[in-house]
Structure formats: structure tokens, C-alpha cells
Amino acid sequence: MKRFITSFGYAGKGIAFAFRSQPNFKIQFTVAAFVTALGLVVRLTVIEWSCLLMAMGLVLSMEIANTALEKLVDMVTREHHPLAGQVKDLAAGAVLTASVVAAIVGILIFTPHAIAWWHQ
Fold first, then answer.
1. Chain-centre distance of CA 19, in angstroms?
2. pLDDT for 1
3. What is the 3-state secondary structure (H, E, C) of the chain?
4. Dihedral angle of Cα 57, 62, 63, 67, to the nearest 10 degrees
5. Domain boundaries, the chain
6. What is the pLDDT of residue 42?
7. pTM, two decimal places
8. Cα–Cα distance between 97 and 101 in angstroms, integer?
9. Cα separation values, 6 from 12, 90, 102, Å
10. Which of 51, 58, 63 is nearest to 27 (CA)?
11. What is the per-residue pLDDT for 4?
12. Which residues are catalytic?
């Protein structure tokens, strides 16, 4: 049980590091907080919440994984190497892909609520 609790501490340190050091993580977190607040206002269904939370969690997780890969590449080589650049580009591409998918999920979920509000 102690190892389990300790692992949560390490994970918390990683999330805190991402929040402190990565501007994009702060932006993604702020967007997720705004989307959460908007979801509370429009009273999303359980299914809508599930989709949004998975999308937001994926984006934040990919941002953390991107940071981890960047740090690992920097640790291995400080020299400009084509493979190191490709690793960083691939990780950034994963974040972008997750962000685009999350935006589409948000549009699909919130558009009907916006249309219903507009027609009141």
C-alpha cells in the first residue's frame, strides 16, 4: 500500500512540473476547466461527460507524455540529431492530434446545446 501511495506522489510531482514549466499544459488545463464549467451550465448527460472527460484527459496526458519525451531526448543528446528532432516532432504531433479530436468532440457535444439555447 505504501508503494501505491508513493507512486501517486511521484505522479503528482510530474503533473505539478508540467503545470509549472509547460505553457501549453497550462493552456490545455485552462481550456479543460472552461469546458467543464460550460458542461455544468448546460447540464451535459453522463455520456456527454464521459466523452468530454476522455478527450480532455487524453490531451492533458499527451501533453505530459510529450514533455517527458522532450526531456528524455534532451538527456540523451544535446546535439541536433535528425532522429531526436523526429521524436520531438512525433510527440508534438500526438498532442496536436489529440487536441484536434478533443475540439471535434467538444463541437459535436456543445453544438446541439447552443442551437437549443439559441431557439429558446
1. 11
2. 85
3. CHHHHHHHHHHHHHHHHHHHHCHHHHHHHHHHHHHHHHHHHHCCCHHHHHHHHHHHHHHHHHHHHHHHHHHHHHHHCCCCCHHHHHHHHHHHHHHHHHHHHHHHHHHHHHHHHHHHHHCC
4. 140
5. 2-118
6. 96
7. 0.90
8. 6
9. 10, 31, 31
10. 63
11. 85
12. 63
If 0-12 CB within 10 Å is exposed, 13-18 middle and 19+ buried, where does residue 60 land? Answer: buried
Query: What is the reported pLDDT for 32?
Result: 97
**Fold observed for domain 2-118:** Helix Hairpins (1.10.287)
pLDDT averaged over 10-residue windows placed end to end, the chain, 120 residues: 89 95 96 98 97 98 97 89 92 98 98 93
pLDDT value at position 120? 86
How much is the pLDDT for 50? 98
Residue with cell 460550460: 38
Report residue 17 as a C-alpha cell: 512540473
pLDDT value of position 91? 97
Rounded Cα distance between 67 and 70, Å, is 5
